[in-house]
Structures are given as structure tokens and as C-alpha cells.
Amino acid sequence: MERAAQPAVPLGQMEVFQALQRLHMTIFSQSVSPCGKFLAAGNNYGQIAIFSLSAALSSEAKEESKKPMVTFQAHDGPVYSMVSTDRHLLSAGDGEVKAWLWAEILKKGCKELWRRQPPYRTSLEVPEINALLLMPKENLLILGGGDCQLHAMDLETGTFMWALRGHTDYIHCLALRERSPEVLSGGEDGAVRLWDLRTAKEVQTIEVYKHEECSRPHNGRWIGCLATDSDWMVCGGGPALTLWHLRSSTPTTVFPMRAPQKHVTFYQDLVLTAAGNSCRVDVFTNLGYRAFSLSF
Amino acid sequence: MSSESSKKRKPKVIRSDGAPAEGKRTRSDTEQEGKYYSEEAEVDLRDPGRDYELYKYTCQELQRLMAEIQDLKSRGGKDAAVEIEDRRIQSCVHFMTLKKLNRLAHIRLKKGRDQTHEAKQKVDAYHLQLQNLLYEVMHLQKEITKCLEFKSKHEEIDLVSLEEFYKEAPPDISKAEVTMGDPHQQTLARLDWELEQRKRLAEKYRECLSNKEKILKEIEVKKEYLSSLQPRLNSIMQASLPVQEYLFMPFDQAHKQYETARHLPPPLYVLFVQATAYGQACAHRKSSQPPRQDKTLSVAIEGSVDEAKALFKPPEDSQDDESDSDAEEEQTTKRRRPTLGVQLDDKRKEMLKRHPLSVLLDLKCKDGSVLHLTFHYLMNLNIMTVKAKVTTTTELITPISAGDLLSPDSVLSCLYPGDHGKKTPNPANQYQFDKVGILTLRDYVLDLGHPYLWVQKLGGLHFPKEQPQHTVIADHSLSASHMETTMKLLKTRVQSRLALHKQFASLEHGIVPVTSDCHHLFPAKVVSRLVKWVTITHEDYTELHFTKDIVEAGLAEDTNLYYMALVERGTAKLQAAVVLNPGYSSIPPIFQLCLNWKGEKTNNNDDNIRAMESEVNVCYKELCGPRPGHQLLTNQLQRLCVLLDVYLETESHDDSVEGPKEFPQEKMCLRLFRGPSRMKPFKYNHPQGFFSHR
Predict the structure, then answer these.
(1) What residue spans do the WD repeats cover (chain A) (predicted)?
(2) Residues 6+ apart with CB under 8 A from B690
(3) Residue B234 to chain A, least CA–CA distance (Å)
């Protein structure tokens, strides 16, 4: 694992502040560009950084290749979730969804294309949006967050179409099961719920914390991250990171990650990127084996 | 010669002619002369050929006679004697003839010789004449060549050009009609003109000289007048001293200071000049107040001027001193053994010698405390050092943890980032140190003062790292550009340290002093209490298990100050390790937390601890308080207590454990968890008084 090199330059106010920021930074979200060459990462300060994956993964990768190509302030609050369409990067955090053009994003001073806020019930506090789910066929964007509902937004018109209720506590993560099509949502209440979009109803519920292999009561019951491959599902959080077979609703593999995991993605069938509570993005090239880390 | 020979001749002749007085002599002379004359005359008359024939005939006759005599003698007889006699007489006659002939021959010879001689003499005379003439000819030729080669001096003179001459010369000199045609006359005219001009110039020169004399005399007079003025001015100055004091314009005092300042070494001089200028500029800015009250910066010189003058004595004296000291040292080597060390020690002392004069700067802060800075100059090392002391209007009781805050050793540490003042800033010093076995200057800073980089800059000394220079000269512009910032930093430093000093006294008693203008940052009721506040060493800090991240990030240097705070509530104990940067409060203190409650929680295993640290470390700008920001540390500590309260009260109840919650929730929170990281609501909202998430 790489460690930050000891700075030889004496630290002034600016350097100390930046070092402190980096020490207390959490990366909440990431998304790969449609061309596959870039990785966007969002952190708790509301910044988005764009890394060049091709440079970092190449055989001649140097220290500088692992630094972001560009960093900009996207949201006021943390950027909890990001997805990419074939042309846009959608980021969401403090109650808003913003869209950015991938083609423009590497230029300095990039501005968002549009921003939208789903209709919330409470007005005292703006609930956060923890998860974004893209359904390219229907051109829908599904949002799940602090108000315990799943909202659906039409990407072309920008209107919010319906909301799915069922979670008793706020929603952490969403995943799309393409075959059905179904949406999986994991929440603070410890349950993974499957929703059928056509009927807009809850189809299946998996209460992860009730299974002994993966439950960790001292951590709590919340489900922090979710990823699905139609037959398989990976989820983790309070309980350990586990691979589930969906039809039978049984856990198959438990991954050896000490800390509760925040984000997980299937990428090209083999690579899993999972970000823990540090400023680093860990890259797995094989299931269960960590290769290297990208750093903010 | 011919004249001489003829002169010789002449006296003979004259003698004979002109001296008839001597009887005998004259007679013999005349006889002899007569003989001469007669035989000479005979010689002239007789024919030499005939004489030769006569001689031959005589010789024959003689021979015949002799032969006849011989015959007769041999025959004998009576008539022989008469015949012999006869023949004898004949032969005698013949002998006489021979003798005469001989005489004639001699005379002829003599005559011949005389004639030759005469002729020769004539020839010689002509020869001589010829020689003389030739010699004269040669001489004349030489003279002619000399004359032809002769360069008259007038050609060496640069005469004015022809055109100019005709233009300038008055017509009676130039005589154009005559000179145009005749080059000789022309040259003469030109020379005339030259002479004329020179005469005029000589005249001018004399006039100027006399003028100069006059003016010099005038100057003398005026000088005398002025010098008589000097003592009068002095007395006026003396008389004006009380007036100066009354008007707050101490010119005299400043003058004396400038006098002393002349003996300062260049870097101290630069510092003195720039600091005085800055002090005056500051005083000018607030010109509404009477100047004396606004002396925020006062500059003075202290030390012995005589010693400073002594430094520039001629080298023989110092060499004598050295040889004396060497002699003394030699004596001591004979007596005692451990002298190598003593010698080395002396060499070290010599190398680290300070200039006898030092500059004193007193910075007064608004609350009346004063920072006394004494600047020294190390002559052999060409660096400046400073000793600092802080005095306050009231006596300070130092709390235990505040020991290092105002100590002269560390109060000015890291005024600029990284400027710890333990190493010499002059790279050339390393070689000097190696010679006398000094490892670093750190061992001597207590005595000599700290060689901070800003001190060198104030003295105008710049030691570039890339190209080390042989001699570094003090530069005024460097000092001037750094003066204002440094003075401001110094004042902020003193005031922040004094503020901390006061705060520490309170912290040690378990009270977090929150000023009234910072009350809005915290809720009214804070249950967690600060129970301990102590200093810890740098090593202790690095060995703590929960401070690894800070150490790795390079934020825990040995120039920082380290403290441990303990906050308690019920069974929960929160340890906070604090890194205080010397640049407080522009650089915030850094907190690392370790909570002991139901297990040990640090930022490694609990995100909420991390969030708490973030609240205090990253969001420090909200906690700075009013302008100088000295409340930062105490506000951070207070916030820490509040955060602990929130943490403990919002902890989700673990179903597996029995019993009620230890800390009932009293804080008003909208939501207990938010976001993928499930953060607790640490942000306090004023004036509503509820907690929310960032």
C-alpha cells in the first residue's frame, strides 16, 4: 500500500490545511466514463476528481498517473452517488442531482448541465441522495436516499414520475437486475428489497442481519452497498460483505474486509472496486485479492 | 719640414755671412768654407765620368808602379833605390790623387744626398699640403652633409595649418604677398605667428594664475570665518537640548545613536537602519497621537564601542597578541596534560566570537507586553543571531503545561514555516565547524542566540542554496522587504503565546475558557468535562497508537508542542492528543482522538471518531473566534466536549447487550444517521439549538 511521502518542504498554513483535509477525506462514489478511460470519484467535501484509468493501469504508471487529472467542486455537501450515461456524468449528494458532460469535464471551470431535486415530504432538513440507478432502456434515473423512498426521474423531461415506499429507514444503495427488470435497494433498516418496476411493488425482501454467517451485530444491521449481476448479488455494510445467490436468497462467499464497506461495483466481470473509510480506492483484479489503490 | 730644413740651412749661411767677429774660427771657417766652396765648385766643374777614368788610370799606374817597385826590389840593384824612390814619390802622388778623388767622391755623394734630401723635402711638403687639403675637403664635406641633414627645431613645432594661419594671423605678420611665393618667408611668417600666439597665451596664463591666487585667498578667509562659526553652533545645540525634549524631537539622542551605529558590522547596521526607518514610518502613520506614546518599535545599540574600534587595530598588534597567547599556551602545555581540548575549546570560542556591539529591538504590543530582541553578529561565521525575551505589564504565573510557550528558546521558533533556528543558515560555516570540531550550532544556541533565517534577512544577508557565494554582503533592500511582515508576525506570535499562556492556566484547572463572543458556537448545556491538560514530549506523541496518521503525513515535527487532554463523561474517557504548531493560531492545532467506552474506538475503527476529528481539525475556521483567532484552541476543546456528548447520546442501542442506555439522549437531533457513512449529527446549529449533519 502506498504511503504519503514525508514532505521535505516546511508546512505553511495552506499545506497543513490540505494535509488535514486529505487525512479526513472519505470517497463516497465513483463512476467510470463511457469510453472506459476515466474514473470519476466524489468525496465528502463535495469535490469530484477525474482519474485517468488508462494511465494508472498501464505498465509505465508513475506516481503522477495516480493523481487526478482534474478536481472541481461539484456539490455543497458530500457527493454520495454517481452514475454515467453514455454522455453524462450524474452526481448526487445533498438532496440534488446534477449532470455533467463527460466531453467537457476535463476542461477547467466545467459547469453542470442541469440540476434537479426530487419532491421531498419534509422541508426541515433536505434529505441526502445516497444512491443513483440508471435504467438506460427506459431512460429512467432512480434515486434512493434519506427520505426512505425510491424516486424515479425521466432523464429526457426531468420530471419525477413515481416513488416507491417500503423501507423503514433511509436507503443506502440501489442495484438493477436487468433481466426482470427489478430494482434492488438496501437500507439502514437492514433489509434488501426487490421492486418490480412495471407493477411498482415490492417483490422480495432479504433481511441480511438475520443470517448468521454475515451478521455482525456490533456493527449494526445496515446495508451499505449493493451490486447485482442478475443471478448474483453482493452486499455489505454492518454485516460482512457477502455474495448472494438471488433466487435462493442464500449467502455464498463472505469477503475478508475488516471495515464496513461503502461502495462496490462489478466491472468487466472480474474487477471489483471497493472503497473503504479512507481516501483510497482499492482495486481488485481477482475476486478476494487486492491489487493496488488509487489515492485522492 | 722644408721650411725647417731651409731654416737649418739658413742659420749656417747667416752665421758664415753675418759673423765675421770670431777670428780663428772665421778664418778656419772661411778656409774651410773656402775649401768647401773650392772643392764643391770643383765638383760642379769636373765631370764624374772623367774622374772615374782618372781613378781607374791612377789605380793602374799605382799597380804598375807597385809592380815595378816589386820588380826592382826583387832584382835588387843600386839604381833600384833611386828608381824605387822615384816610383815611390809617383805612387805617393798617385795616392794623393786617389785621396782627392775620394774626397771628391765623398763630396759628390754628399751633394747628391743633399739634393735628394731637398727634393724629398719638397715632395714631403707638397704631400703634406695635399693631405691638409684632402682633410679639409673631407671636413667640409662632413659639414655640408651635417648642414644638409640639419633639422631645424622649428619643424618640430606643430604650426597651425596654412589656411588657419592665413585666416588668423594679422596681415603684418602673414605678409601674404611675400610669403605666398616664398616658402622660406612663409615658414618664417608662420613661426612669427606662432611666437605671437604663445606670447599672448603666456600672458593669459599669468593673468589666470593671479586670479587663482586671489580666489584662494578669499576661500581662506571664508574658511576661517566658518571655523569660527563651529563652536558657536555647538553652543546653540547645547542650549537647544531642553527645547528638543520639550518638543519630543530628540535629535541629539538620534545623532549619538547614529555615531555608535557607524561602528556596527554591516548586517547589524542594515538591521539598525531599516528598523529605525520602520519605527519612524509606523509612528508617522498614527500622527494624531503625540509621537512618544506611539513608540511601538524602539531601536537601541548596546555594547562597547571601544571594543568595536579595537577590532580594526593594525595587524601587528593582533599578531603580537597571538604570539603572546601562543607562548602562554606553550607554557601551559608543558605544565598540564589536557591542553589539546583547551586549545580546541579556545579555537571554538574564537570562531563563535560575537561582535561587541549588538542591536536591541523592543516591540510593544497593544496590551502593554514587550518583546525584547537582542541581535548579535558572529563575526567569523557571518551570521546574525537573536535572543528573545517577553515581559508583561503584570507578573505572569506560569502554569506547568505552559513552560515552553514563552521560553526564550522556543518562543520565536518557526516564525516562518520550517525556520527552527537550530542550524546555521550559512553553508560555508560547515567547513569552519569541521576544523574546530563543532558538530552543529544547536549546542551553542542557548548562549549565542538563534540564527533564524528571518534574522539573516533582516540583516540583509542572503545565503543562496544553489550557488553558495564566497562573501555574502548585507543588502538593504532585502531587509526592507521583510521588515514589515516579520514585525507583524513577531507581534502576533507574542500575543498568541500570551493568550495561550492565560488559557493554559485555566485548562489545567479543568475549565475550558470560552469567551462571550464564542458562546454561540456551542449549546448551552455541555456535560462532558475536561479533566486533564498536560504537556507530553514529541517521542511520547509519536509512540501513541492513534497518532500514526498524523506522524506519517509529516505534521508532527519536533518543533511542535504536544499536549494530552482528557475529556470524561460517566464511564467514557476521551483522550485527545494535540499537536500545537508554533505558528498557532494561523496554523490550527491538530487533534487525534481515542475513545475508551465499550471498547477502544479510534479513527481506524470508527467513522464517527473520524468525523469528530474532522469537526475539530478541518472545520477549524468556524472556531477561530474574533479577529486574532486566539480562541481557537479553547473553542476546539469545547467543541470536543460537545461532540463527545452527541456521540455518547446518539449511540445506537445494541440489542445483544442488556440494560438501559448509559447516556439518555438530551440533544435535539433531526436524524441520528445519515448518508452511506452513517454519520452522527455533529453539527450544532445556532440559535435553533439542534444538531444536524454536514
Answers:
(1) 164-205
(2) B667, B668, B669, B670
(3) 55
**Secondary structure letter of residue B459 according to DSSP:** T
pTM of the model: 0.65
> What does the alpha-carbon distance between residue A219 and residue A98 come to, in Å, rounded to a whole number?
32
Mutate: best of B555, B604, B608, B674, partner A, most A CBs <10 A:
B674
Is residue B355 within 8 A of residue B449, CB to CB? The reply is: no
Q: Are A79 and A46 in contact (CB under 8 A)?
A: yes
- In one-letter notation, the amino acid at residue A43 is N
**B chain contacts of residue A4, beta-carbon cutoff 8 Å:** 552-554
For A:83-122, CB contacts with B below 8 A are none
Amino acid letter, residue B344: L
Rg (CA), chain A: 19
Is A173 in Cβ contact with B655 (below 8 Å)? Answer: no
For testing contact with chain B, the best of A3, A15, A22, A44 (most B CBs within 10 A): A44
Contact B587 A13 (CB under 8 A): yes
B512 three-class SS: coil
Phi, psi of B596 (to 5 degrees): -110, 95
- Please tell me which of the candidates B618, B671, B678 has its beta carbon nearest to residue A21: B618
Interface contacts A/B by beta carbons within 8 Å: 100
A11/B677 Cβ within 8 A: no
Single-letter code of the amino acid located at A7:
P
- The answer to whether A205 and A191 are in contact (CB under 8 A) is yes
DSSP state of B520: G
Q: What pairs with residue B388 in β-bridges?
A: B373
Which one is predicted more confidently, B289 or B49?
A: B49
pLDDT at A219: 74
Q: Is A14 on the interface with B (CB under 8 A)?
A: no
Q: What is the mean pLDDT of residues B145-153?
A: 83
What distance in Å separates residue B675's CA from the closest CA in chain A? 6
Residue of B nearest to A13 (CA): B587
Distance from CA of B612 to the nearest CA of A (A): 10
**Taking the CB of residue B605, how many other CB atoms lie within 10 A of it?**
14
**Mean pLDDT of the B670-676 span:** 80
The C-alpha cell that represents A219 in the structure block:
456493527
* Burial status of residue B77 (CB atoms within 10 A of its CB: 0-12, 13-18, 19 or more): exposed
- Residue B409 at interface with chain A, using a CB cutoff of 8 Å: no
What residue type is B129 in one-letter code?
Q
Nearest to B417 among A6, A10, A259 (CB): A10
- Identify the pLDDT of residue B325: 44
Nearest partner of A80 among A32, A125, A31, judged by Cα: A31
Please, which pLDDT band fits residue B11 given cuts at 50, 70 and 90? very low
Q: Which residues contact B147 (CB under 8 A, 6 or more apart)?
A: none
Locate the chain B residue with the closest alpha carbon to A223.
Answer: B676
| Cβ–Cβ < 8 Å for A131, A122 | no
Strand partners, A150: A144, A164
Contact predicate B412/B489, CB 8 Å: no
Contacts 24+ apart (CB under 8 A), A74-77: A74/A42, A74/A46, A74/A47, A74/A48, A74/A98, A74/A100, A74/A112, A75/A42, A75/A46, A76/A46, A77/A46, A77/A128, A77/B694
Mind listing the pLDDT tens digit for each residue in B538-567? 998 989 888 888 888 888 888 888 999 999
In whole angstroms, what is the distance from residue B328 CA to residue A83 CA?
88
Grid coordinates in use for B511? 475549565
Helices then strands (H, E): number in chain B?
A: 22, 11
Type of residue numbered A45 = Y
Is the Cβ of A12 closer than 8 Å to some Cβ of chain B? yes
* pLDDT 10s digits, B370-380: 888 898 888 88
Cell 449493493 appears where?
Answer: A226
